[in-house]
Amino acid sequence: MHRRDFLKYSAAIGAFSALPLWSRAALAADRPTLPIPGLLSPDAKNSIRLTVQAGKSTFNGKTATTWGYNGNLLGPALQLTQGEAVTVEINNSLAEETTVHWHGLEIPGDVDGGPQGVIASGGKRTVKFTPQQQAATCWFHPHQHGKTGHQVAMGLAGLVLIEDNESRALRLPKQWGIDDVPLIIQDKRFGADGQIDYQLDMMSAAVGWFGDTLLCNGVTYPQHANPRGWLRLRLLNGCNARSLNIAASDNRPLYVIASDGGLLAEPVKVTELPMLMGERFEVLVDTRDGKAFDIVTLPVKQMGMTVAPFDKPQPVARIQPLRIQGSGELPDKLVNIPALPNLDGMTERWLQLMMDPMLDMMGMQALMEKYGPQAMAGMNMAGHGNMGNMGHGNMNHGGMNHGKMGAGFDFLHANKINGKAFDMNTPAFAAEKGKYEKWTISGEGDMMLHPFHIHGTQFRILSENGQPVAAHRQGWKDTVRVEGGRSEVLVRFDHAASKDQAYMAHCHLLEHEDTGMMLGFTVA
């Protein structure tokens, strides 16, 4: 055991023994302990080795096949440093091909790990890159075209922690797994046999794949004992299709200190924190009062996502402060965020997100057939094709086959950008390296939620879904909300991406991405 790990675990054990006996018994017996992903740093040769593998995990008392990186489920947290090169060797021991995409990293297209970066079953791929961006919590996950949703649902996701001197100088909580804690939040659905029940069908292609079980770091409603003081939570919405709304059960404030691309200019106090799929936020929570509370997700207004138990607040993790005192602080100022440049004369692009009306209608019919009208999340259906007067009783049950493939309808290419489903061989446009561009992403005429993600950059949001940008979303971002309105982002690409290894821009509702709502673009 490394000395640093020994000290860390000694501190954790010491903290645990500081609990009174009754509290320790409650902590041990009541809930599973929050699993903490191991930190994996480059070795003496600046190398990291990842193996994509199958394993077994237990949920609800039943054993399921799961996939993970260097383990049964999820993966380690890779610890990288700004300006230091790293070589990652990825070995694929799965029975199918996969890719590893570095979500949020500003790196060249040939190592970005999009759908072209295929690693065959039994094969390996080695990528080398140097993160130049500021400190941030990013993540890695598969990007296998048509199978991203399935592979993420099976458990493939890991964190990337980029460090820099500026963040190290701040007196933020920094003890990994003690007062600096990752919460990877995902929902899952299981079959009667206990296996992960993933389907890409008409219903999931329209509204996404969602489950009835909420997991945090791979377990249900775990607990974490932290020193009494400021607790840093690194939140990742790792769900395929479910947006979240994070809060504390006792309504204590969350102080947002970082978004997708790193630290904000200053902390932003919120009591609710909406999170799109793929987004990360870092928050500080004051636990100096020593009182236990839950991190919860509140109900969201998103089609399919109000099905029980998510019609009520759901606990993510239990926080139980210890008697020992923490040492981290909440700074008044964090980092400098540059002012937005003048937008005059810059290249502008328009990306229109569209779902095939037939998919829209048949998917929603299947949703209501399976779960009833409450699954519509109170959506105003009037004027949406013939859905406005579609009662639960008059649906074409025979033709739907419970949301499975409609006769002859190609739902695998039914989601589009600018009228086209994804074509891996034909990039949609070429961006110029190092030049700012203004992109408008429109969901007008479409009622679904589209969290839009752009590879190879951390951008600034100019307007979001037709609204001014919330304070905690004004920093560096790689995902923006598009839902029936239009969002404007200021992008710049500092690395090249060729036709063969193009960057992607796509909806991060994974089933929308898998069924066409994605485009490739080059940078030179």
Automatic annotation (TrEMBL):
Its EC number is 1.16.3.4. The keyword Transferase does not apply. InterPro entries: Cu-oxidase-like_N (IPR011707), Cu-oxidase_C (IPR011706), Cu-oxidase_fam (IPR045087), Cu_oxidase_Cu_BS (IPR002355), Cupredoxin (IPR008972), TAT_signal (IPR006311). It is an enzyme of class 1 (oxidoreductase). CDD domains: CuRO_1_CueO_FtsP (cd04232), CuRO_2_CueO_FtsP (cd13867), CuRO_3_CueO_FtsP (cd13890). Residues 1-28 form the signal peptide. Residues 52-166, 404-523 form the Plastocyanin-like domain. GO terms for molecular function: ferroxidase activity. The keyword Metal-binding applies. It catalyses: 4 Cu(+) + O2 + 4 H(+) = 4 Cu(2+) + 2 H2O. Keywords: Metal-binding, Oxidoreductase, Signal. Monomer. This is Multicopper oxidase CueO. It comes from Buttiauxella gaviniae. The gene is cueO.
